[in-house]
Amino acid sequence: MIKTIRAGVRNPIRNVIRNRNISQTFPRSEKPPVTVSSEPVTKQDTSLRLTHVVKPYQKYVLVWAGAYKSIAEIPERVGHGVLDTALNKVRVKIAIYLMIATAVGAGAAVYSGKKAAQRGDSLARRGEEYHRKLREEGAKEKEAMAVKAAQ
């Protein structure tokens, strides 16, 4: 008994689980009935629950996706399904445009690389020229330092 008390003191969560009130749990056959409100749901309440207040950027999305013809036609509230469908269509359109832009960019890189190869320009040649220029500047600085030290 002492060991279990010590374990409960060291680990209070275990102690709470051991001492929880089980009187409030019911088997499925004896659960209390769920009470349902007898007030009828009005049409306005239903429409408010099933709709979404449209934000300004979502209006542009709805027009671009083709759900509405203009921003002026969009009501204040739109169904969740309409908005989700429009957002998904726009997401796909953006992905397609980005794929096209990537392909065009890759083609431009290949084209400019081939033109540079025809001119004889390469990264290796650029690196060699840069290092040669640095060496020349370093040699000039050394000569200037030697002349200054000789005076």
TrEMBL record:
<comment type="similarity">
    <text>Belongs to the UPF0389 family.</text>
</comment>
<keyword id="KW-0472">Membrane</keyword>
<protein>
    <submittedName>
        <fullName>Uncharacterized protein</fullName>
    </submittedName>
</protein>
<keyword id="KW-1133">Transmembrane helix</keyword>
<dbReference type="Pfam" id="PF06388">
    <property type="entry name" value="DUF1075"/>
</dbReference>
<dbReference type="InterPro" id="IPR009432">
    <property type="entry name" value="DUF1075"/>
</dbReference>
<dbReference type="GO" id="GO:0016020">
    <property type="term" value="C:membrane"/>
</dbReference>
<feature type="transmembrane region" description="Helical">
    <location>
        <begin position="94"/>
        <end position="113"/>
    </location>
</feature>
<keyword id="KW-0812">Transmembrane</keyword>
